Amino acid sequence: MNTPISPTGASPEPAELISPESACATDARILLFTDRSGDISRYRSRFQAQCVSPGEMLRTAWRWARWRLQQACSLWARCLATCLVASCSFTLQAQQPIPAVTESTLPPGGLGFATEGQVWGDYFHPAREEALIAEARRARSESRFLDSELLLEQALQINRASAGLHNPSQLHILEATLESLLLQQKWSEFDEKLDYLAWLNRRINRADPLQLAEGLQHQSRWHRAAAAAEGNPSSAWYLIQGKYLDWQAVSLLEQQFGRDDSRLAPLLYQITLTHFYQTVSIERRGMASYEFRTDAKAIASGRAASRSETLRRSYRIGRELLSRIRSLYAADPSASGVTDALLQIQLADWDYLYGAVDRALDGYRQAYLKLLEEGIPGPEIDSYFNRLQPLPLEQLQTAWPDPVPEPSALSFDAWSRTYPGAQVPLEFQQQLFNDQAVGRIREGNQTAGEIQVMLTLGAPVGDPEGMHYGTNRIKPVAATMENDAEVERALTEIKLISFRPRLVGGEAAVLGPVLLRYRPASDRSGPLRE
Fold first, then answer.
1. How far apart, in Å, are the Cα atoms of 144 and each of 111, 149, 181?
2. SS (H, E, C) 85-145
3. SS3 for 44-65, per residue?
4. Residue 428: is its pLDDT beyond 80?
């Protein structure tokens, strides 16, 4: 039988629960169970008035007495539990000081269990946390990722118990755990830790919008890392979610600096790159689907867009973002005309990536002339356009680069086969995650195999105006592939890379042959075949 209880836990008054139209037995039962004083004499006249039989009165009184007995037993049980907890706490405090914890005294496997001859008086001692982290690093270096995950989980619990649930010192343990989960492709556990990272970032940095925005960007990087993992069934979701996190960071920065501050530019450019990754991921598919899943008995709705519609949308949004970035620097007094010309080149790069070659070449010519007006020598501009430059650029370029000698070969590391034609992002090359995690994430997806080819860029025969400028000749030189099928697949992937056209005097020209060293996103090491 369910007993009505007030939200505050106090005993509600009978008048609040009694309805004049209730039946006699129900009315008596509610009255007795509601009155916590035990005095039922004041209700006797009402029972008699409503024709309550003596048998019903006895049964109802018995139910009331039984309820009072249960309440008393519950109170004694709570008191006994409190005494036991206090006794345990006193016992722990009365123990002798524990010996210093070192890696040599850590139990086998580091799982936190005491072995024969060892006494662990304080499980939450900070020295135990350090020993667990050291053992987890050793396990990770030996590719024992499951052991590393378990050790780090214990270290995280010790840290939270000793330093508090909201302490920033647990972040490095949490991110190492995310790394182990990512390498094992445990997506459910990875999502749980990622949600915890998001909650912790908001809890710690709720009073500091700039730190909060930085934490959101860091979460976005983890989403991009998960999106690039081969075999991830939800790679598109991670990519889109990372983009939303970047937009949240943009909103926070806008509140601090305003919408017209150039400090927004790098983050806006990252969102532009994410749209590029989305584009190359759907170019091989006919439809782009957005699913809404639920376990409840509800109608699931969704939206499907054609490939061409999705590509047009990404192209339009990316171009708007690049135009906004250009306007931000145009309003910045410290920005020069060279910066505007470089941003115009990157806007033309975006046009070229999406097949608007004529519009791109026109943008390159205008930027070329603007650079001449700003005092950049023509040969230096030609040298800038004479480099084999994969598109898009890994980071926003706002300053004219110093002249550098032309490399003998260009190295291109493919990011993921989920995103063909995309280079490994600079954020991963710079190892922004803790303890060189990015290097191990990449090692989990690819090996050191590569293929060397000679490339020639230019307009095909019969197209003198260069309206279809691009890669028109690929000649394999050497490869470290297991079989010919892998070589053919690598050559197909190379054709998906977009390179910036070569300009001489502002006009498109042939570039090459140039040596390109290409590392696929996943490969098998093998002997070098000439």
1. 14, 9, 12
2. HHHHHHHHHCCCCCCCCCHHHCCHHHCCCCCCCCCCCCCCCHHHHHHHHHHHHHHHHCCCH
3. HHHHHHCCCCHHHHHHHHHHHH
4. no
CB 409 within 8 A of CB 516: yes
Terminal CA-CA length for the chain: 84
pLDDT in tens, 337-363: 999 999 999 999 999 999 898 899 899
Confidence of residue 118 (pLDDT cuts 50, 70, 90): very low
Place of tokens 């010790």: 158
Distances 302 to 230, 283, 292, 307, 499 between C-alpha atoms, Å: 25, 20, 6, 16, 36
As a whole number of angstroms, the distance between CA 163 and CA 168 comes to 9
* Separation in Å, CA 372 to CA 50, 225, 366, 381, 485: 104, 41, 10, 8, 48
Cis, peptide link before residue 333, omega less than 30° from 0 = no
d(CA 14, CA 20): 12
pTM across the whole model: 0.71
Determine the longest span between alpha carbons in the chain, in angstroms. Answer: 112
Q: What is the mean pLDDT of residues 254-261?
A: 95
Among the listed ranges 213-227, 461-475, 509-523, which one has the minimum average pLDDT value? 461-475
Range 82-86 contact pairs with CB under 8 angstroms and sequence separation of 24 or more: none
One-character DSSP codes across 153-185: HHHHHHHHHHH-TT-GGGHHHHHHHHHHHHHHT
Structure tokens at 142: 């030996």
Provide the 3-class DSSP secondary structure of residue 151.
Answer: helix
User: Per residue in 474-501, pLDDT tens?
Assistant: 899 998 887 888 889 889 889 889 999 8
SS (H, E, C) 446-505: CCCCCEEEEEEEECCCCCCCCCCCEEEEEEEEEECCCCHHHHHHHHHHHCCCEECCEEEC
